[in-house]
Amino acid sequence: MKTPFNKYLYLGFLLLGIYQAAANKNYMEAASQMGIALAFDPFDTDQPWPNRPTWQKATLIVHLALVAALFGLSLGLNDK
Prior knowledge:
Blueprint: H1 5-22, H2 27-37, H3 54-77
């Protein structure tokens, strides 16, 4: 899919995840929404991973780390 529509879906799911975490304090829902956002790569999807610029790789890796942190936070807060 080589359309800018990926960028809109990525941004939409990212903002929805931020809203879920900040306003609703629902960290599991935030992790799932932000994880879905990763499926819609906002960068050039025809470019292979080794050929991507470092800043694009760093952005996606930090995003993935944030999803993992939200997932861990959700599990930790719900542990009884």
